[in-house]
Amino acid sequence: MKKVYEIxxxxxxxxxxxxxxxxxxxxxxxxxxxLTDREADFRSMALDGEDLAVIAVxxxxxxxxxPAAERLSRIRGNGARAVIVxxxxxxxxxxxxxxxxxxxxxxxxxxxxxxxxxAEHSIAHAYGANRPDxxxxxxxxxxxxxxxxxxxxxxVTTPAIPGNRLYxxxxxxxxxxxxxxxxxxxxxxxxxxxxGAIDRDNPARVDKQACISCMRCVSVCPxxxxxxxxxxxxxxxxxxxxxCSVRKACELYV
Length: 254
Known about the structure:
Elements: E1 4-8, H1 14-26, E2 30-34, E3 52-58, H2 66-72, E4 81-88, H3 96-106, E5 110-118, H4 134-152, E6 178-179, H5 188-192, H6 216-220, E7 226-227, H7 230-244, E8 251-253
Parallel strand pairs: 1-2, 1-3, 3-4, 4-5
Antiparallel strand pairs: 5-8, 6-7
InterPro entries: 4Fe4S_Fe-S-bd, 4Fe4S_Fe_S_CS, Fe-S_Ferredoxin, Flavodoxin/NO_synth, Flavoprotein-like_sf
Keywords: 4Fe-4S, Electron transport, Iron, Iron-sulfur, Metal-binding, Repeat, Transport
Organism: Candidatus Tidjanibacter faecipullorum
């Protein structure tokens, strides 16, 4: 392979951790493309057929996050091989992988493998807590070796990937973080919001229609001054309890 790319949408870092485990197992230098960067010129980015890309996104309600799909569609794959990865908070990933497959293939990539992995839930942190953990990392490293073996044998076939076409209906953002009294208007949340939903001059002002509930603003605030409504958060935890109570394992399609 010529170059290894990490093309990642990871507002709170869990998806990035999974992508890093896979690419580190192959060694060598990795080129990063950050899909959360709303200022990036993705149309200027192009790979070629000798390149390998790990393309990783979180699952939002069983779907690819809309801005991630839109930005991916602007990158020119030019036949580069792709390992697609969806990361979820131990509930379910539903149609995320198959939607990601369709998105990257339309952008000109050749999907050679797919991975579903678990990371700490970005809203309900009790679920998938501290994952990917050591067991996950061992699994992911083993997946990376199997993918490398497939490519070394010249096999670039696309595996059967689970999911439905038509995809499940996308939900609306339900939890919009708000600024607390600890906010000093430093502006970091506004600068790092993947969709520009936070007013730069007044971070207490949020465009609720633009917000995707990614929790980036909560995770990056140096003063811990952004929070979601406690009653709604308790409701989310209660709703997820049954679905998330059993530990899910990482999965490979190759």
